Amino acid sequence: MKKISLFVALAVAGLATAQVQMTPENLDIRKATVQAVVNNSEITMEAFSAKQPAAAADYAAHDYYHADGMLHSCYTPQFYGLTMPLIMLPFTDQVVWENYYGPTNWYSQATDELLAENSETLVYTAWQDYGLGGMYYLMYTGDHTLTQGDQTYNIKGYYYAEANGKGGSAFTVGYTPITISTGENIPMTLAGMETALMDNETGSDFYQVSSGSTNSPYAHGTALYADADHTIRIDTMGSIVRNVSPMKISAVNIPIYNSNSKDITGMLPEGAAVKVEIFAADLTQGIIYTDSLLAETTFSAADYVDVYGTYGTVIAKFWENDPFGGVMEVPVMVEGDFYIQLTNYNESGCDFGIFSDFYTPGGTTIFTVNGNYTTLFQQGSNLAISYDAYWPVIANDTTVNTMNVPVEGGIAHYGDNANDNAMLLYTNVADVDNAWIIDAPEWIGVGMDTTYLTSNGAVFMMYQAEALPAGQEYRQGVVTIDADGFVFEVTINQGDVPAGVEDFVSPIINDNKRYNLLGVEVDENYKGVVIMNGKKFIQ
């Protein structure tokens, strides 16, 4: 229910701006270059966790930095990508970049300024460093050494998307899908897509990978075995995805290929249907909640987009019954970490591999062998499964989401300053009329000014309350804004609200069950705000 009354015109008090924001004028596109490589690494049933530099003449390895929850710009189903690749990030209070090969010096690609010295991490703070939305220059690292035991290695500094030259790469915060000239959105993926020139002279990290260890045509695909003798067949594979902000997924794109010159009729024969399931997960605890199915669908040859006969993309969408007896597409809202799983490909007689990266550290591909999850290979990879998705967000330009209103009624304000009464919210959900749902108690009116939404992604909010009823000492109300699945709450206090009421925090119940705001358990068919494992999301 949207409860809006435009009771006052709001004034601009000053908008936050990012310091090194780039313009998207260089977002040209290119066709993907398809490469093949053999994974000859050993088979293991242990999780991949090694940080072992490979032998080289001058450098043992090159740096690689990453941030929690980041994804990469991927190719479209037609295999078009950006000439200036992007690292995709949701908006968070801060972004912590961590270097894979230990302490190093960090520099700005824009100015060559030293950002941090001899540090394993580089911290960017919201507003001061990157703001909400847009594209920003990344950093680079310097050459340094790494000591492991009694051995010292020379480590080469790292430029993201080095093949594009210094200053040619950027990342987005509060990612909103980028539509290119083909009419497609640039999806995002776990696959690194870009690597250092030390690994590949083209800078590309997008491969058809076969398995030398198991004599299989696909390291990630059908007819894959866990042993060279082909006695242990793998019928389940997928990816674990670290997701730190609610993600709205419209479709899942899976780039596939055939190693024997077969077209789609051989890759996905008539009647074949591959099952796709998304399960909740908590990767901080190493848990996949197999009893918490968030979404499921299937794909077949009918969902295939041909690119070059022997390779292309299957597009998996999600559906639900409509009121007229048919079906309609529905997006999937994923609150936290998740695991995407593919099954029934061998049983359906399919013959395809899935593209992946090869040089990017930290493999996220998971296989199921004898009921156990395994990365299978010591050198793990990231499947180039991509998501037509984004992270919707509302961000307050302050850390305070509580406002006060006089007993006699009037405009809510911060603290004791009656003139500090405008809440400035930044958002990447531009369709306020259709994608924002505002719910408030009957005694609270909500005012909104979207004058600066298009130019600055900014919305000014005001909240007006009726007079406190006679004989009542205080009351507290919560205004909930659902911005396309992202839930933002504002607490309005009126009267002498006890500290215990204002500071009350509901206990977190980690039982993987769903509850409504009243604490009543609900199922997956419930519509509205749901709490699961201490986190709120729209179901």
Distance between the termini: 15 Å
Largest sheet: 12 strands, mixed
Number of strand segments: 50
Evaluate the radius of gyration. Answer: 25 Å
Number of helical stretches of at least 4 residues = 4
Which structural class best describes the helix and strand composition? Answer: mainly beta
- Number of structurally distinct domains: 2
- Amount of beta strand: 35-45%
Question: What do the pLDDT scores average to?
Answer: 86
Percent range of helical residues:
under 10%
Low-confidence stretches at least 5 residues in length (pLDDT < 50)? 4-14, 16-25, 45-55, 502-508
What is the 3D shape? globular
Question: Outline of this structure?
Answer:
With 539 residues, this protein is mainly β. The protein is 3% helix and 42% strand.
Task: Give a description of the structure.
The protein is mostly beta strands. The chain folds into two domains: 21-390, no CATH class; 397-504, Immunoglobulin-like (Sandwich). Helix content is 3%, strand content 42%. It is built from four helices and 50 strands. The strands form 13 sheets. Strands 1, 6, 8, 13, 17, 18, 25, 28, 29, 32, 34 and 37 form a twelve-stranded mixed β-sheet that branches. A hairpin with a 5-residue loop joins strand 10 and strand 11. Mean pLDDT is 86; it is low at 4-14, 16-25, 45-55 and 502-508.
